[in-house]
Amino acid sequence: xxxxxxANLEARATASSQVALSWTASTDNVGVTxxxxxxxxxxxxxxxxxxxxxxxxxxxxxxxxxxxxxxxxVRARDAAGNLSAPATASATTPASSSGGANxxxxxxxxxxxxxxxxxTIDWPVTGDANxxxxxxxRYRKQxxxxxxxxxxxxxxxxxxxxxxxxxxxxxxxxxxLQPGTTYEIELTLTDPDGGSTTRTVTATTRSxxxxxxxxTVKQVTPATFASALNNAQPGDILQLAAGTYNAFTxxxxxxxxxxxxxxxxxxxxxxGNIDLFSQHHVHxxxxxxxxxxxxxxxxxxxxxxxxxxxQGDGIVSFLRSENAYIADNVVTGRTTWAESSLGVNGNxxxxxxxxxxxxxxxxxxxxxxxRDGISFLEQGEAVDQYSIDVLNNDISNAADDGIxxxxxxxxxxxxxxxxTNAFVGISSQPSLGGPTYHVRxxxxxxxxxxxxxxxxxxxxxxxxxxxxxxxxxxGVYAGVPVRHLYTRxxxxxxGPGGNYGGYSTGSGLVASLDTLDTATAxxxxxxxxxxxxRFEARIGSARISSLAQxxxxxxxxxxxxxxxxxxxxxxxxxxxxxxxxxAPDLRIKAGSAAADAxxxxxxxxxxxxxxxxxxxxxxxxxxxxxYGPR
Length: 630
Hints:
There is one protein chain. The protein is mostly beta strands. The protein has 2 helices and 52 strands. A 13-stranded parallel β-sheet has the order 18-19-21-23-26-29-32-34-36-38-40-43-48. Strands 22-24-27-30-33-31-28-25 form an 8-stranded parallel β-barrel. The chain has a 4-stranded antiparallel β-sheet with strand order 4-3-6-7, with no helix packed on it. Helix 1 (225-230) links the parallel strand 18 (216-220) and strand 19. The longest helix is centred in the last third of the chain and has 7 residues, at 547-553. The two termini are 52 Å apart. The relative contact order is 0.08.
């Protein structure tokens, strides 16, 4: 019996000398062993020649002539040598172009430090002096027949800032993937000046950290813990009985698949700090710690379901670490929500969670009462801060920044966090070329600004965020250019402002972006409003007094005007910023001005309801995400 015919054969000319083929796998009673790819040349051709025998479901045919039509047949072959009927497709290569310095020369694609749910894609290029090359993205689980569209990569020109530099490239991320899964990623670079090409790579997300399947559980007490820790072997679980434990340093490491686990039980309390220096594959699970956890220069550390009552910092790594998993913890600091606490020089103390280095995942933590809720290191202390996920955290009463994502090199993903009562919601001062993604965050009662894009921040991407604050709705007071800013589908609502701790919240403009570099910015499909009743904005040199003027004089061609009535619940406007407000429900109301007003963003708002995506962090009628511990 012959195999079934390969389905969904697609032929796409991806360069003047290249055609990419893909198809859905055939089936067979004895098993498909591979495929035969045949090609003919010329419009309507019928004389086919075999060109390849791939075992997978894709093939890139190279060395072709520009401006030429090609026909293809693909047959499946089984273990008995039977061939299926052919699937057919055709494609025409574009004419060659000699664009000189404007033509792209593509480098090697990399996918550095995949996390549990995201994959970074970095594709260096030379040439493309006019920066008109674009890269579209398709992806699928390895072995699946159906491709999904990804968000296009961001074009990142060569640049430098604050002692750091970055190369000419296309860069971006795949979002909300499944842990422990291999994905095929197809990248199509199109440059009308020449150099168009397609590359296919694979990358595998990390699995959720877990103890060894056959872990040895060792029951310990305050009297026996030190000895057990000094003699722990990879795969051991040290389970702490009720009692009070002194501060300790972890002296040993586990291995991949066999971490050393230190697990708390009810009544077990660590009075003091826990330190890990240059260790790897160590898990701290379910501990109550009256102090700090520090994991400098450590890799594959997991800190899970702990309760941290911090005297200063909570969970920190001040030296480059990799691939930490910090999840479902409750981290409480000593900073009070008061006017005297505000700002970098305020009466505040401590970093709730702080990291530097690549590959970290910080998710579903509840962080309250710190200078900065979650932060990265700054200036010369920032090392390899890329491929970092900050997801679904519940942050409140941050006297400086709710999230301080400063000095992100690229592909830091700040997604679905809820920030309530913060001097600044999210800081990105600066993003070092980008992209730094800020997606579906909810920021309520940020005193100074929702987003601090200072120090010539370059490459920030704001998608589907919801902001409600006193003063200016979307205010960035950088004093220097904000470059390559990209915004879509956000909600910004401001109102009457004031002065707090010596800082002005603004006068209630819907947007105050005086130093925006409008030549490199792209803002559109955002919703703006102010409870002052006025619609006034400053965007670059434009001075705006109506929605119509915003649409005609800026890139916000599809902006809409919104008010507090866009929310389904009754939401109090935070008119007294030094009130410690509870987190409100900011889901929008169906049929409101924010409904169906957004742009389609592949891999970001797939599955939206209605005629178009809604603005803000939530689709109307959707369930709230889980913020904080699960």
